[in-house]
Amino acid sequence: MTLATLDGWVAERIGLAQPLTRAALDAWQLERLRETVAYARASSPFYRSRADWPEIEIGSFEDIARFPFTEPADLIRNDPPLLALSQSAIARAVTLDTSGTSGPPKRLHFTAEDLEATIDFFHHGMAMLTRPGDRAAIAFPLGRPGGINEGLTTALRRIGAEPLLAPVSSGPAELAAWLRAAKPDVVAGPPVPLLAAARLAASDRSAPLRIRAMLLSSDYVAKSLSQAITAACGAEIFQHWGMTETGYGGAVDCTYHAGCHLRENELFVEVVDPRTGEPAQPGMLGEAVVSTLNRRSVPLVRYRTGDLVRLVEAPCPCGSVLRRLASFSGRAGAGVALTGGAELTLPVLDEALFAIEGITDFTATVRKGAPLTLGLSIAAPVAMRPPALLNAVHARLAAAPTVGEALRSGELRAEAALADAVMFRHGAKRRLLIQEDGPCAPCC
Fold first, then answer.
1. In which region does residue 90 sit, left (phi positive, over 0), alpha (psi from -120 to 50) or beta (all else)?
2. Taking the CB of residue 267, how many other CB atoms lie within 10 A of it?
3. Of 12, 272, 307, 320, which residue has the fewest beta carbons closer than 10 angstroms?
């Protein structure tokens, strides 16, 4: 599978001539945006009730910025509901816990057509790294019916690959042993558990783990983490971006690894300044905002994802005209501001710490005060710990951008401790814990 083939798939799905051109795709998306906005206004009680809705005709992509955002809180509150169809038309309802909170969950609905569109994208996206006859391991946590695992299983069978469900609930050691025994050609799963399993497998004296390719998704993927997995098992790393709100599938990497190609037959993506909500300058880092283009169950107009990305408009070296998301930088508002406009974030720490051999996971807590205190709990199995591991942690922090400057200026101090663990429980996603000044809670 090549991205030119993926372009052909997009063109076929939306009825455009091949080869796909950017001008033809833009014209189609603009028309679909008009239809989506009109449909949402007419059919969804939430959008119908919005007093801030501009009654304008969308004549250009710039006009979409005149419409109000849909916030994650709107899905949580769901009053009035966003659902634009009767319950009888819904094939799957998903209750999605809100990461890092104990509040009410999000509730999303999908028709059979929505679910098939996701499987279709998984089929063609996974074909970027999967060949007919491959053994393909699925290492995401066991989810609900109609979720990622079920969709990937169906998609892999369409490719002609053999899907294998990994025993992810047992822990990294069991996953490492299973991967060695199952001998998959490709693996799809979350980054940190697969890093932990790959490093554990590389640390013992059994036959080395060899995997041709891995697709990492569901959390931030640090470059140092990707390099560590490749060093441990030889896998070429592909990335995928998506969330339940996008119908799971969103954008997928190609062999040039120059950004993830958007699923533009289903999604229109803007990038905005996360503080002001204004459109970001072309090529600048900002928050991804998604509008669905075919969703009839829960149409989303300008949904704020909270993910920091850069939108790449220039053609990819692979030849695809699909726009790409690149420079993934974690979540908007999830860091701690430092002097000079810099920010301490979990992705910054990931880049620094996963480069250290032996580290399989960590948690990070920042306690506010003067100075800020960064508390790290480091997971590094005893058999894998290099000498003076904590010294290496402090050295990497001192050399890291933003962190090093804050440490040297005295604005930040760092405390690190080794934990008797291979991996921590993180909930939906790993995150930087931020505490007000006071006694420091345990980092793990």
1. beta
2. 24
3. 12
